[in-house]
Specification:
heterodimer, A: mainly alpha, B: alpha+beta, six-stranded mixed beta sheet, 14 strands, globular
């Protein structure tokens, strides 16, 4: 192929092609590429970036859609209000308490199920994998409504079953004590994605490491502790981050269970539900936007902390 | 120090962003007053030019969104359109749970013209968005003489007449005659001033009656030493669909009151309301005559009277909608209504709901909107389908005749309903509070706590709640 005067670098451009500032791409290629990524860029700008900017602006106002023309800039008032808002503190506590319960529980359960369905001795592994993943295909609202029926204190299946073995089941959804564990129980039902990721991680562990451990005399627990856990620690880390973010964004189940109110006694008033109520029940859009940014900062902070601590327990490929 | 946003452009950018945030569409709205002022000539011009004016009626904030109600509303709309070729009325029906949010989202950019039926509580959220129709009533010569002045005044807010009373819903006792017969007890009084078995008809007498009507799984009533409160099968009393609204509960058992003192900013819980809440709380957790929330859930999914396992139920006129299930055999086969007892404040209080239809002051066609409003307010078929006692007195006989036809062969004593209309709660249990939505939510949170939790020190709980309300009131000022 003949080289043209416009050729840059070591690779050749087609005859007549004009290099652009994008490097080796021709302007036509650049345009084609841009056309392909345009839907994402437009979607991102319209549905993510602009609303984020709008919510940041709104967080400094007292915007109420019912009285849009009376909107005022109120500086940091919304942020100052957070400091004296007992409901915000309560919703944060509800969320943190739930995270402390549900994150380790779901991680442990998902890992246990992944280990189970990864075991070659298990008959019908594919069926079990499908069964554990299947709840992910059901809309959250629908599954929550089913769970409300199951957990009904008077005529729900769970208390019926407990009653059959002589246990007087609690008032799962109307008791401030039990509603958190009830939601955690629902969460365990939906571990399909997490299980799948663990499963992928487990299947990527080289079998020769287990063979070597066996030769060194390691038992089942030893192999799990010294081979499996370190090798899947990046996956565990990923699932931990995702679970934590999901917990801080927990909303749908709490909304459905409590009719959007956080009942009983605000025990299901998660941070996001409180944010939703400020925005769409009380129409305090400005304050709700400030809450959204607080949530962003909290999740960002937690993620940074986890990444900082990851070095001590997450084994990257280069360390293997 | 607050600083108003300087330019319309910045408001527009913010509004546009927000609209995206809400997945709604549009531009920043014109101020309601501007719209109303500037629209009149335009409305006249459009009418004069023979152009058809579009008027949208938004339903869902109160009743009116039930499946069986919509065909009647559609028929009224069709009748209006046929009679008024220059105005095209459209009907938008939104689910009640979504209506307030939907309307709020539409207000900045795409507001409807007419909203309603909307109750007193709903007006606290949208009342200041409504047009003062007083001048239109005067100039058009609408005759309000058939409507009691007290009802007209319900919709006079800060000197603005924001609606013509259409539908009123006094509350009274629905009672299951079969359960009374089974317990061999006399039915409750149908006339104000009538005694029950030789005693004045008070809440204490009603409590004694409810104790005898409350029965456990072994057939023991609540007056028996063997009564098992853990396994109640029939409850003597409920006030269903009041849900967890503490203002409503306090009003039912305690009489009229307000959480706001006369100065308009101090939170309080009047003594008669404290007695009222105590009655309610003891009824649930001490006497076990009123179902708690768990039990309510098990009784026909919250429609407790319909379960046939509640002997007396304090509900509004609108409950005629729902005494029987949508399909299947009704567990309640024989019922009637009775008057409310005298409360601890010495008077009868029939907690009142009332609906109106209002015109949003952002409408571009106030004249045409008022034409529609007049038509709707005078349509007895609407009040009939909404289960409401018509505010216009000469429509009431027809209304009750329609109900008689529906509930035949039962003969319901509708005289009770009209009697109770004479004893509305004033101030209303749905009346204004500072930071209304937040305060209303706090009241319901409190109610939820009482409804679900035994063994509370109610006096201390009320004191703490008043303190919480004060914080909310102060935040709004």
């Amino acid at each position: 192929m003949a080289m043209t005067p416009h050729t840059t670098g070591s690779a050749a451009l087609p005859i007549g092609a004009v290099p652009t500032r994008w490097g080796r791409l021709t302007s036509r290629e650049s345009l084609t590429g841009l056309a392909f990524v345009a839907p994402f860029i437009i979607g991102f700008v319209v549905f993510s970036a602009l609303p984020m900017i709008a919510s940041l602006v709104l967080s400094f106002t007292d915007f109420d859609p019912r009285r849009a023309d009376e909107t005022r800039f109120i500086g940091l008032d919304n942020y100052a209000r957070m400091l004296r808002d007992p409901v915000l503190l309560q919703s944060l506590w509800v969320t943190v308490r739930f995270a402390l319960l549900v994150v380790p529980l779901t991680l442990g359960f998902a890992l246990a199920v992944a280990l189970l369905v990864n075991n070659t001795l298990l008959f019908g592994r594919s069926v079990f994998r499908t069964l554990f993943y299947m709840p992910m295909q059901i809309p959250i609202v629908a599954s929550t409504i089913v769970w409300i029926g199951v957990l009904n204190a008077q005529n729900g299946w769970l208390n019926y079953g407990l009653g059959a073995v002589g246990i007087d089941g609690p008032n799962w959804l109307q008791s401030a004590t039990w509603v958190g564990p009830s939601l955690a129980l629902m969460g365990l039902w939906g571990i399909g994605n997490m299980m799948l990721i663990f499963l992928a991680g487990l299947q990527s562990v080289p079998t020769e490491l287990y063979d070597a451990a066996r030769v060194d005399g390691a038992g089942v627990w030893g192999r799990f502790r010294h081979v499996t856990l370190p090798m899947i620690s990046p996956v565990l880390f990923y699932n931990l981050i995702i679970a934590l973010i999901a917990t801080f964004q927990y909303f749908t189940q709490a909304y459905v269970v409590s009719n959007g109110r956080g009942d009983p006694d605000r025990a299901t008033l998660f941070f996001n539900l409180n944010l939703f109520r400020e925005a769409f029940t009380f129409f305090n859009m400005g304050y709700a936007s400030a809450l959204a940014w607080l949530l962003f900062v909290i999740v960002l902070g937690l993620t940074i902390v986890l990444f900082r601590t990851a070095g001590s327990w997450v084994f990257e490929g280069s360390e293997r | 120090m607050y600083r108003p946003i300087g330019t319309r452009r910045s408001l527009g950018v913010m509004g546009a962003g927000f609209v995206l945030f809400l997945a709604a569409c549009g531009t920043q709205g014109t101020s309601p007053s501007e719209a109303a002022e500037s629209s009149e000539p335009e409305a006249s011009a459009s009418a004069a030019s023979g152009e058809v004016v579009e008027i949208e009626w938004f339903v869902g904030l109160g009743t009116g969104e039930n499946e069986e109600q919509i065909p009647t509303e559609e028929a009224v709309v069709a009748a209006f359109n046929e009679a008024n070729p220059n105005i095209h009325l459209t009907l938008t029906v939104v689910d009640n749970t979504e209506a307030a949010t939907t309307l709020a989202a539409r207000l900045p950019s795409d507001p409807p013209d007419i909203i309603g039926p909307i109750g007193i509580r709903g007006l606290q959220s949208f009342g200041d968005q409504l047009l003062d129709i007083g001048p239109y009533i005067e100039s058009s010569g609408v005759d309000l003489s058939e409507i009691p002045q007290a009802l007209i005044d319900v919709y006079n807010v800060d000197g603005k007449q924001i609606g013509i009373p259409m539908a009123v819903y006094p509350s009274f006792i629905y009672y299951n005659k079969s359960l009374f017969d089974e317990a061999q007890l006399a039915y409750p009084p149908h006339e104000v001033g009538e005694q029950y078995e030789g005693q004045d008809w008070t809440w204490e007498v009603l409590r004694d009656l409810a104790l005898q009507l409350t029965v456990d799984a072994n057939g023991n009533d609540a007056t028996s030493a063997e009564f098992d409160p853990e396994n109640v099968e029939v409850y003597g009393l409920d006030a269903q669909f009041t849900e967890n609204d503490t203002r409503a509960w306090s009003t039912i058992f305690g009489g009229s009151g307000s959480v706001v003192a006369d100065d308009g900013s101090t939170a309080q819980w009047p003594d008669n309301w404290r007695h009222g809440l105590q009655f309610f709380y003891d009824g649930i957790w001490v006497d076990h005559i009123i179902p708690n929330q768990t039990a309510v859930q098990a009784l026909a999914d919250g429609n407790t009277f319909q379960s046939g396992l509640v002997a007396m139920d304090v509900v509004h006129q609108w409950y005629t909608c729902c005494v029987y299930p949508g399909e299947g055999d009704p567990p309640v086969t024989d019922w009637d209504i009775a008057v409310l007892p005298v409360g601890p404040d010495g008077v009868i209080t029939s907690k009142l709901h009332a609906d109106t239809i209002g015109i949003l002051d952002s409408t571009e066609h106030p004249d045409e909107a008022f034409e529609v409003l007049r038509f709707l307010a005078a349509s007895p078929e609407l009040t009939q389908v909404w289960g409401a006692l018509p505010a216009i007195e000469n429509q009431r006989d027809a209304f009750f005749a329609g109900l008689d036809e529906r509930f035949t062969p039962l003969e319901i004593d509708w005289n009770v309903s009209t009697q109770m209309l004479e004893y509305p709660d004033n101030p209303s249990h749905e009346a204004f509070m500072p930071s209304f939505d937040e305060a209303d939510s706090a009241n319901k949170d409190f109610g939820s706590r009482l409804w679900n939790t035994a063994g509370l020190d109610l006096a201390a709980e009320i004191d703490a709640h008043v303190q919480l309300l004060q914080g909310i009131f102060d935040e709004g000022t």
